[in-house]
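Repro case for the chain-ordering regression, as requested:
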Amino acid sequence: SLSADWAAEGDIKRIKTLSAGAHRSLEPVGPQYLAHARRMRHNRTFSEDDRI
Amino acid sequence: MASEGTTAPRSASKYAPEERTAIGIAFGNTNSSIAFTFDDRVEVIANEDGDRQIPTILSYIDGEEYYGTQAKSFLVRNSKNTVAYFKDLLGRDFASIDPSYCHASAHPQETNGEVTFTIIDKASSEDGEAAAPSTVSVHDIATRYLKRLVGSASDYLGRKVTSAVISVPSNFSDAQRQAIVKAADAAELEILQMITDSAAIAAAYAARIDSETAANEDATAEHKKDKIVVIADIGGTRTDATVISSSAGMATVLTAVHDYEFVGAALDKVLIDHFAKEFAKKNKGIDPRENARSLAKLRLEAEATKKALSLGSNGSFSVESLADGIDYTATINRFRYETLARPVFDGINRLVESAVTKAGLDLIDVDVVLLSGGTAHTPRIADSMRTLFNDTATIVAPSTIPAATNPSELQARGAALQANLVRDFDAEEIEQSAHPMVSTVQHTSLAVGVIAQSAAGEVFTPIIAAESAVPVRRAILLPAPKDGGDILLRFAEGSTHVNTVVKAKAAKSDDDSDDSDVDSEDEEDEEERSKGWKVQNVLAEAALRGVKKGAKIEVAISIRADMGVSFTAREVGGKAAIRGSL
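-- result from build under test --
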């Protein structure tokens, strides 16, 4: 289903960036939130957090 | 929402994590409950009266203090020394309180700018002289009540309860929150964290789904990670409809609507009026509502009848010496009650619908309707929610899902789960974790997914839902086109829209629904509404070359905190793979 004349560098064509999000407040409750808070406070990414 | 930009009130008393015994408290205007987490099991604690829903009432007879159900029964013969519905009076100016629910008990009054009650809470002297009335602030009343509540939990657990997570309505002001913390401090109870009622309910629900998903691996499709959940918390004196976006167990409130009219007390009033009129018909026009004591008896019995009607199809109502020394006994069936109470049920429906609309959503976008609060036991409310949502959402209530958690217990359970999570933290850590700097994050405005070719043409498949908190990472499996080969994947943002197909009048209009009262709306053509996806922006195109026949492709998208997007696509068990970012 890839047309023959489609070509892009590295086979990826970047067209747009994500549209703007909105700032909202999470409810500071539950294990997933606390994991998020831990990552935020230590400035870790998901994978860094998984390793610890 | 109301908590935005505010820091959590701090409890003055502090315990080291290892000295703590922490419970969850749902502190209501009508009823309160307490719960504790043993390992991973939450138990709602019954007090010494055997009640798990403990009326928020305090009463004094001859210097003796009563609380809960015992205090509630004294509303009939000791109403002046009984304090009820006081939680909503905490932390407020006298001018701004609504004392209407307090008419049947001790009246609130103003003393030096504080809301107080005049009650006789001391024993009469030995020579029989009545004790002088004392002026007690609502703050002290709350402290005394919380002491009893915590005392019951301590007795049950066999050790002193030191700390608690307590839930409050989301529109409680800072002053109201502070007042609760102050009352708890005076009761020597450390408030670890104050959470909103809807967050507590959502947490109790999420914990349950997590455990069910863990127990049943195949359930992933049903228990998808991202959901729009409507919480209808229908209490005695207030009803809150909250729309939340639940993203992998994290809840974001999209809207909350509060109402003080379509509540449990309004349902009691329907029964009070009905039985009062019936009584008057039989007894020379004597209206038991005109006598305070008769009205108090009516109120207690009407509530009991209402509860019976939630469980069975018939409820009996009987009061000894209701008015003028006349006993009264009657029965009512559920259908009759539902007809009389219809305005209240309709009001609850409108409230839920308005919350969904206010969130900018369509009813069809809602995945789960979670009924909470004592009034949520009413089967008719679950039925009318099912009709409102046209069976596209799962209605979680005892009458629709027999295994559903008791709606009266959700709040206390959620608070107990949270208490269990944070009890090992220092006070500073808890405060920092709940800080708006941490809790306020970007949420996607549109869904992000992939457009893939299928037999039916181009199809947008969402991978990350709209209103997801970032950072977020999700992956799905897509079937590759039958012939394999080179595939073009287009990453895009999409939004939902509603497809309306007007179906000709259904052939079997004699639907087997139980409400056989003639409904003219049923005569119209049925519209079938379904949710569809519309591509808004194509973000990137990527080629995946050399895919085998009948292969599956795993497509993963992650969005970073700065709204940058990374995507990967790879053939499961194959060589073809591509990775990129925006």
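Ordering looks correct now. The beta strands of chain A are 12-14, 22-25.
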